[in-house]
Design goal:
The chain has one domain. Helices cover 11% and strands 55% of the residues. The two termini are 26 Å apart. It is elongated and about 55 Å long. The protein is built from one helix and twelve strands; from the N terminus they run αββββββββββββ. Strands 1, 7, 8, 9, 10, 11 and 12 form a seven-stranded antiparallel β-sheet that branches. Strands 2-3-4-5-6 form a five-stranded antiparallel β-sheet, with no helix packed on it. With 193 residues, the chain is mainly beta.
Amino acid sequence: MPAKRCMLQLITSAMAIAGVVALTAAAASAQPVSAQGRSQASHSVAAPRSSAVTPEAAGRYSATSGTATTQVSSAGDPCFTSWTEIDYSSLGLRQWWIRMTTNWCENGVTVTSHSTRVTQDHGRRWNYYPGSVSFNCYVASGSTRNCSGNHEHLTGVNYLNGDLHVTCFPSIAEWENYRGQYLHDWSNNCFPV
């Protein structure tokens, strides 16, 4: 009996690894978005038949982003609000969403100010574990000035659903520069639990 149990555990582990590989998906978009622009990326995640994930846990996720000119600073510099949002749906319902929003100003030489906030919501069967946002400034392309660009990166977020036996790890990165350009990158990796 112990040999059969060990073999069953080995097979189950191999199936779980196959499920992790099959459920891992990421997408990136690193293109400037105009003040009126909006970019979208959408991917389906299908659970493999041998996965420990139930069929209803296989979901669909998408990301949207945008930038709007929101104000002019006291120095007369243009200011913007930029955002990237990841949405996860399964069972025909929105299960959770997370959005990183950055308010920032530039003067044609450097990014003069910025602030970032994260908002989210999730269905009652999901547990949310917040991550953190890191920040650094850099020398943007075409400039020689430090902080001519800003970078924010949201990592460490976890959504866990024990009923559906799935856990998801969304990540969002944003860049803003002295020319009023906004770039973003995102990923969402879901695994069976």
